[in-house]
Amino acid sequence: MLSAEAITKSFRAATGRLVAIDRVSLELECGARLGLVGPSGSGKSTLAQIMAMLLAPDGGAVRIDGDRVDVWGVRCTRELRHRVQLVFQAPRVAVDPRLRLGEAILEPLAASAIMPAGADERAELLQTWAARVGLTRDLLERFPHEVSEGQLQRACLARALVVRPRYLICDELSSMLDVSTQAALLETVAAIQAERELGVLLITHDRVLADAWCGAVADIRELSTRDEAEAVAVATQSRSGALNVLLRGGLRRATRP
Amino acid sequence: MTSLLEVEDLSVGFRTRRGVVEALSHASVTIRPGELLLVVGESGSGKTVLAHMLLALLPRNVDVSGSVRLGGQELLALPPAELRRVRGRRMALIPQSPASSLNPVRKLGGQLLEAARARGLSEKQARTRLRELLAELGLDLEFIGGRYVHQLSGGMQQRVVNAMALVGEPDIVIADEPTSGLDADLVDATAAQLREISARGESLLVITHDLRLAERLAGRLALLYASRIVEVGPTMSFFAGPAHPYGRELLRALPEREGKSIPGLAPELTALPGHCAFADRCPDRFDRCGESIPDLYPAPDGVLARCFVHAER
Prior knowledge:
Chain A is α/β, with parallel strands linked by helices. Chain A has one domain (about 1-255): Rossmann fold (3-Layer(aba) Sandwich), CATH 3.40.50. Chain A is built from 10 helices and 9 strands. In chain A, strands 6-7-8-3-9 form a 5-stranded parallel β-sheet, sandwiched between helices. Chain A has a 4-stranded antiparallel β-sheet with strand order 2-1-4-5. By secondary structure, chain B is of the alpha/beta class. In chain B, the strands form 2 sheets. An 8-stranded mixed β-sheet of chain B has the order 6-7-8-3-9-10-12-11, with helices on both faces. In chain B, strand 9 (about 220-225) and strand 10 form a beta hairpin. In chain B, helix 4 crosses helix 5 and helix 4 (about 110-120) runs parallel beside helix 7 (about 155-165). The radius of gyration of chain B is 20 Å and the shape is globular. At the A-B interface, helix 8 and helix 9 of A face helix 8 of B.
């Protein structure tokens, strides 16, 4: 289970400190599809970045399969980092413009020094993932500016999956894409999710999409445990049956004096 | 009624390293005064190229044929100075990405005033008009004016560029992906704004891939696929039942309908087939589809569809 426990994060702003999220708790089980919705500016992306260990929270804890995360950003261990992967909202800015798609997909392996040594092995690995996300061989040779946004987002998905994460956080995976591309990308994620028991957190501002695709949907505005009210329990049966109670109340008592 | 904007047999090709990208082939659309036309299509279908063509915002590596007339005046042959007069005053663009359309190192007040002054308003008129417009959009000129673009939320940025487009009271407003990147509340607000602009009697061309927005704006709809218009007709007929198989499959992909993707990919624009571009993905395909490019044939409810199914009837 990937859990965020009473996470608080604020940023410096011209008007003082801006509290992006205040004691937000969320649990993502392996094999579950959880939707996280909320209006823009409600802290969805901030929470995603914290859960992916890219950003350190001001307070609260992130646990990955029980292991508490205590270093963030570049200092985070590779092993931990590989368990949770994030697909960013805007593929154009999330990919190095000087890398061909194929290189971009294998970049995490190169960065973690676990790239297969043989060229054939590399090509095979790349081919496997490209086929999985629906990219043709020809596209792997292209630079980001030579492909469409949907094709680039497919490459970003492959890049996140190539390290075989247990949890995948999709931050507005498809909000910039056309409906048919969106449907295709989500079909791909769903297939991999079911096959690998991947826990997927789908962050979106599209409530209709979240309701249609996810086993359960949480609204970030209702996840804050700052009030005396119980933390939200939005628990429904997942489509796969693997998901039971996703979000439990009561974390507040454990984390507040 | 005479047409305000007439696009006739417009083709646009980009010369690139990988060959000529046929961004738009033989497109013809018209907008009558006060009409709202939606141009809907997936990315790469040519819809933004159409909008930029109308405003002559295209780069140099481009081959254009056909004609674009605004109130009878041919725009494609206009000298730059004339064109500048048409743009902004007679035609205004609500750009696709407000954040990158606004100058990041200047405060917004100056940019808004500059846009208004360029449309021929005096300083005083410009301020009054901007204050009214921004108030209608739920913003305050003083608040906005002293800020930089990065200090505003995406929705506020969108409203700032909407105000810039409307300030010159143009004959026609072109909105290029007005809702991309906005959340549901702001999509509602933007749709309402566009409907209001339309209700004021303005002519509106809305370019979008957002089918939900299209359904709410009504008017007429032209659907593009692989650089060609494949269906054109009343928006409501489209949502009730598209005449072209691509339209039908596209609607099925909506999460609230079936969320089912269309198998395969759209053809590369550098290698468009000599037959129906949708044939390879089409569940209704028959022999003729792989032989030649269909024309736009009349379908029920005043719809034209580029599909041989309608030629047979």
